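TASK: fixed-backbone design
INPUT:
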């Protein structure tokens, strides 16, 4: 992996100018590339959302360029096509990619979906059923909102003092805690943080406006998009007891199927890193009726058809800039972060 951002951008630009990123996919048909997006960023320069900036990816213009390039150089698989290939233990001779979106944000419906439909590019939208049902944003957005909105200069939280000169650093610290600490430590994290920040949680109306509705998900499921599970409450599964994990997986599948009227066949593990799920989690996904599961990165940021792990399909988060996007997809072992 190229670790220096400037070096990475320079090499990616060089690969683009020499058109090597268009040739490399043909040399690596044994790899399955799975892309994980969350949000489509507005076009306006200097955009600074009240919620988590980290989940915003490319603009519509950038996403359109990315999808167009993928369609020219990869076979973009639908969920059904991917699962059929896995069932047959097939090894496609052409390079393949899968497009996924997490968390059911409204811009997935308004901005990403039209681009996907224009190009006939299938995708999977992974949905945390409780978030959609209760119209309440995930803990990452709420944490970012509270830290951004507080008027305090320093924050005393759980016995530690945090200087708020660089709020992005503090937000990342809290998000890391939510991903790593045991469930009993994170259960009331957001409520305690709101009290410490002296800020009320965002209004119901503000949160509702950021999320897709069941009607929009049902409509999306009738086209190029499949709807998968992102568990029920988006808690990190590895921090939960076995039966709670089982309920997270089973209830989400049931609730989504009840609302959209279609079978839910895949799940993306929340946060998805190596510490976010276990071998038992993968077994539970199979036991609760899923056909495949997705994670993030792992030992390699790609999947080899010959050694595909059906319940650990690794995804990578693509960069926004086209040159780095193409380089990352074509050479994930070098460029993926």
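OUTPUT:
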């Amino acid at each position: 992996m190229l670790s220096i951002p400037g070096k990475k951008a320079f090499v990616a630009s060089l690969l683009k100018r020499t058109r090597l990123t268009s040739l490399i996919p043909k040399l690596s048909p044994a790899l399955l590339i799975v892309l994980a997006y969350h949000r489509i960023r507005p076009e306006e320069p200097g955009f600074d959302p009240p919620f988590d900036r980290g989940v915003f990816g490319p603009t519509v213009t950038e996403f359109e360029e990315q999808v167009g390039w993928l369609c020219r150089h990869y076979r973009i698989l639908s969920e059904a096509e991917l699962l059929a290939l896995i069932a047959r233990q097939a090894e496609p001779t052409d390079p393949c990619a899968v497009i996924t979106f997490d968390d059911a944000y409204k811009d997935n419906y308004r901005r990403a979906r039209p681009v996907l439909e224009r190009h006939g590019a299938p995708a999977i939208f992974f949905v945390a059923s409780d978030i959609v049902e209760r119209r309440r944003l995930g803990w990452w957005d709420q944490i970012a909102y509270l830290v951004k909105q507080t008027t305090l200069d320093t924050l005393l939280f759980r016995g530690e003092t945090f200087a708020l000169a660089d709020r992005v650093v503090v937000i990342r610290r809290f998000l890391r805690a939510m991903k790593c600490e045991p469930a009993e430590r994170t259960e009331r994290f957001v409520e305690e943080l709101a009290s410490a920040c002296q800020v009320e949680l965002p209004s119901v109306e503000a949160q509702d406006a950021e999320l897709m509705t069941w009607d929009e998900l049902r409509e999306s499921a009738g086209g190029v998009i499949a709807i998968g599970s992102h568990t029920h409450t988006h808690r990190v599964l590895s921090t939960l007891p076995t039966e709670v994990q089982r309920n997270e997986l089973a209830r989400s599948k049931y609730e989504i199927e009840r609302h959209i009227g279609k079978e839910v066949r895949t799940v993306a593990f929340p946060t998805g890193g190596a510490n976010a799920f276990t071998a038992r989690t993968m077994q539970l996904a199979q036991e609760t009726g899923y056909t495949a599961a997705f994670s993030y990165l792992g030992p390699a940021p790609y999947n080899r058809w010959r050694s595909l792990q059906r319940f650990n399909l690794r995804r990578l988060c693509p960069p926004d800039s086209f040159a780095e996007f193409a380089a990352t997809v074509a050479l994930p072992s070098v460029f993926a972060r």
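COMMENT: Residues 5-136+204-335 form a domain with the TIM Barrel fold (CATH 3.20.20.370).
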